[in-house]
Amino acid sequence: MDITYLDSVAFWGKSRLHDAEALSKMVFAALIIAAAIINTSLIGQVAILFSLILLARFAGRLAIGFLLHLSFYPAIFALIFALSGLSILPAEVLLLRVINISMTLLILISTTPYPELFAYLKRFMPSLLVDLIYLTYRGFFILIKQIGNFTVAIKLRSGFQWNRPHRSLANMGAGLGHVLVHALESGDHISESLKLRGYQQGNIGSIGHQPIITVNDIVLIILGIILLLVGVLV
Q: How far apart are CA 111 and CA 10, in angstroms?
């Protein structure tokens, strides 16, 4: 699944972007999103997108086609909104704005392990809320694995057949029920494990080191400021 691939790349990827501090990448993402929102010209949006593609390819060693593919999902909804006539912006500017914001967030989560992201979120959000989001994120991968196993089992046992819709729907319902029950059991196991390990509010996803600003961080923030100026002036 796409999100599992992004999670794997964030943890095991090696590049200048991966080496940069999470805080620097979050500041960069905020600057780019602000630039994309402020800018209302086609040239400015194209310049931002081109810069993001170069950054992802050469500084992040990311698969550009894969990132663009994911970015086009929200662009579909933006296209519907643009064609409805409710937008005051030209359709192409609105589409590029959405793609730029999506690309920025994808670059962020593709080069930053999620514990680091959640650790910094605790500085701006209640720690209990961040812990809940963190555990939900981890539980999501458990659910994905269960659904994958269920899909394989259905295929191997011919549980889904187009010519027998009633039996197929019954098998699907039973299988999804099993997945739901197993997910609830996994949640209970996680809860008991946290209690046994002395869980306290706010101790999940803590920063394990002091942020060290390097050349990569400085260059990244400067690039974000330049693109923000492009968004304002162009």
A: 4
**% pLDDT > 90, the chain:** 27
Residue count of the chain: 234
DSSP assignment of the chain, as one string? -HHHHHHHHHHH--SHHHHS-HHHHHHHHHHHHHHHHH---HHHHHHHHHHHHHIIIIIS---HHHHHHHHHHHHHHHHHHHHTT--SS-HHHHHHHHHHHHHHHHHHHHHS-HHHHHHHHTTTS-HHHHHHHHHHHHHHHHHHHHHHHHHHHHHHTT---TT-HHHHHHHHHHHHHHHHHHHHHHHHHHHHHHHHTT--TT-SS---S-----HHHHHHHHHHHHHHHHHHH-
Residue 186 in tokens: 């996994």
Query: pLDDT (tens digit, 9 = 90+) per residue, 74-90?
Result: 888 888 887 777 777 88
Contact partners, residue 206, CB within 8 Å, separation at least 6: 119, 122
